[in-house]
Amino acid sequence: MKSDFSDSVWCKFGTLLIGVYYRFDNSLIVGSENNDKLCELIKELCGENVLVMGDFNFPEINWTSNTVNAS
Hints:
Blueprint: E1 8-13, E2 16-22, H1 27-30, H2 34-44, E3 49-55, E4 61-62, E5 67-68
Parallel strand pairs: 2-3
Antiparallel strand pairs: 1-2, 4-5
């Protein structure tokens, strides 16, 4: 998988593309455009058989209620 997003690993099993991410939440280290790069990568994967796993560091997500309290 070609991407400008830092810290991801990909492999393919048959038609299934598997990606593992670590979204570092410090923009001083990875740059302020890192979230945009992640969104571009996700858009590129539309229509594929994809399993995405990892640590996205989004503290605004309430995993109990499956809601987000952020823009």
